[in-house]
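Just scan my protein:

——
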Amino acid sequence: MLIRNPQDVRRFREQHRDESSPWITVALWISSQGSVEGSEIIQSSGREDLDRLALQLFNEVARFRPAQLGGVLMPMSAILSVTFSGF
């Protein structure tokens, strides 16, 4: 799974930098076209504002390359973790 726009993702994280940010783990459901169809926090940071930022990052900023199996585009799910500190 590759992010199509890593510069946008990095810029978003830098804009929302918070040195006290713990890791936030998010489950994603990605369509066969590479867009996020759904997301859910599976390990909270304990801070609602950071959890919302993590969902915003994956739902509105990150763009994914479509998954393929034998050359056929297909939906996929993924579990990713993000922090807004130390990058």
Observations:
- Residues 8 and 61 are 7 Å apart (CA to CA).
- The first strand starts at residue 24 and ends at 30.
- Strands lie at 24-30, 36-43, 67-69, 72-74, 76-82.
- The mean pLDDT is 92.
